[in-house]
Amino acid sequence: MSGIYIHIPFCKQACYYCDFHFSTSLSKKNEMVFAIKKELELRKNELSSVVETIYFGGGTPSILEENEIRSIIDTIYKEYEIIADPEITLEANPDDLDQETIEALAQSPINRLSIGIQSFFEADLKLMNRAHNAIEARQCLEDALAYFKNISIDLIYGIPGMTDANWRENLNTAIQFNVPHLSSYALTVEPKTALYSFIEKGIVDPVDDEAAQRHFNILIDTTEQKGYQHYETSNFALPGFFSKNNSAYWQHKPYLGIGPSAHSFDGEQRSWNINNNPKYIKALTANKLPIERERLSTVDRYNEYVMTGLRTIWGVSLSKVQEEYGERFKEYLLQQSKRYVDEHLLYIDNDKLITSKKGRFLSDGIAADLFLVDLNK
Fold first, then answer.
1. 45, 194, 250, 258: which is deepest, by most CB within 10 A?
2. Cis bond before residue 59 (omega within 30° of 0)
3. What pLDDT band is residue 1 in, cutting at 50, 70 and 90?
4. Nearest-angstrom CA–CA distance, 62 and 82
5. 376 falls in which pLDDT band (50, 70, 90)?
6. Are residues 255 and 264 in contact, defined by beta-carbon separation less than 8 angstroms?
7. SS3 assignment, position 125
8. Residue 93 to residues 48, 345, 346: CA-CA distances in angstroms?
């Protein structure tokens, strides 16, 4: 099984914390849709397995018209083999999801919405320069749940000024709506973003790492009490609502990334498109792929497996490490992980190295310590 990711590089306005590739100018939207469909056609032979997930990310995919989304999906069905009932996700912002739009999407092949709520508090939304307000956050959820069963929302914690009580209220609001999937992330301050500049100038308070860890612990405890499964560091789902798209990434299934800045993986190599909209459109108009490729070494693949595995409930299979990467990798992993096992941040269960509840907030840092340096590079 494999997946297709479509990057829609447009937003109404720039969120202060975002460093993803996008443009706030929609002047080339039609040309972009054409180029995306052209790339899908040119790369149709790159996936050797049937497609089980289609994911529209961005940017803000909900900025597209329903007929534009449908035309891209039609191209996928024309050029690729698709399973009978694929998971087709559209990332959307609350300000784009009025009732008429939701009704139109419900009649399209889209069967899952991922809504960028981020917070139900007006002050948080203004600090992040979100395009929607707190009223729209609640209203779009109410409307969407009337038409879609499978919905995920994004929530951000660790926002400067966010209290523990407000964070609990954010979570409780989502749970009261009976949202089946939550993706929740700590606010990170990326270089060259507006938020970074504001913090440097003292306009916004720095992110408090201790507060972020408290919020993460509140997140784990609250969702666990309400029956959500913490199946990946930042993802929580009621039974039967794991994201098939995201789970495929973490389990190293192949996927095709379409659109400017999109990344792809075929099991042996990674590739990525140019992150420039005009150059992307120009290349595809000329039937050329604006893409770079890199073949992954055994060390690269091992390091990626450790990184993704420790973020999930499936952990890192010791037997898989030995079979796919070699005995020395397994021995190195056991040696490097011993101190984290002793500190109860990791544990071994049925041949799997798994992050404990205590270690989940630190999983990326722990994984980095288990990486092997490729001395041949």
1. 258
2. yes
3. confident
4. 23
5. low
6. yes
7. helix
8. 33, 36, 37
Structure tokens at 56: 């529209």
Name the pairing type of β-strands 112-118 and 82-92. parallel
At 359, list the tokens.
């270690």
Task: Let me know how long the chain is.
Answer: 377
Please, are residues 261 and 275 in contact by the beta-carbon 8 Å criterion?
yes
Where residue 161 falls among pLDDT bands split at 50, 70, 90?
very high
- Please give the average per-residue pLDDT across 291-310, as a whole number: 95
* Helix H or strand E encompassing 366: helix 363-370
DSSP string of 261-308?
T-EEE-SSEEEEE-S-HHHHHHHHHTT---EEEEEPPHHHHHHHHHHH
How do residues 53-90 score in pLDDT, each as one tens digit?
A: 999 999 999 999 999 999 999 999 999 999 999 999 99
What is the spatial distance between Cα 315 and Cα 317, in angstroms, rounded to a whole number? 6
Give the integer Cα–Cα distance in Å for 150 and 214.
Answer: 29
Backbone φ and ψ for 266, nearest 5 degrees, come out as -115, 10
- Checking if the pLDDT of 375 tops 60, the result is no
- Treating both helix axes as pointing N-terminal to C-terminal, what angle do 298-310 and 327-342 enclose, rounded to 10 degrees? 30
Residue with tokens 């095709």: 256
Unique residue bearing structure tokens 């500190």: 343
Tell me if residue 53 falls in helix, strand or coil.
Answer: strand
Q: What's the angle, vertex CA 149, arms to CA 147 and CA 154, rounded to 5? A: 100
List beta partners, residue 115. Answer: 92, 153
Supply φ then ψ for residue 154, to 5 degrees: -95, 135
Angle between helices 66-79 and 99-106 (to 10 degrees): 20
Residues 330/321, Cβ–Cβ less than 8 Å? yes
Q: Is 2 left (phi over 0), alpha (psi -120 to 50) or beta?
A: beta
Residue 252's pLDDT is 85
DSSP state of 10: B
Residue pointed to by tokens 């929302």? 153
Distance CA 261, CA 269 (A): 16
What does DSSP assign to residue 1? -
Tokens of 344: 């109860």
Cβ atoms within 10 A of the Cβ of 281, count? 20
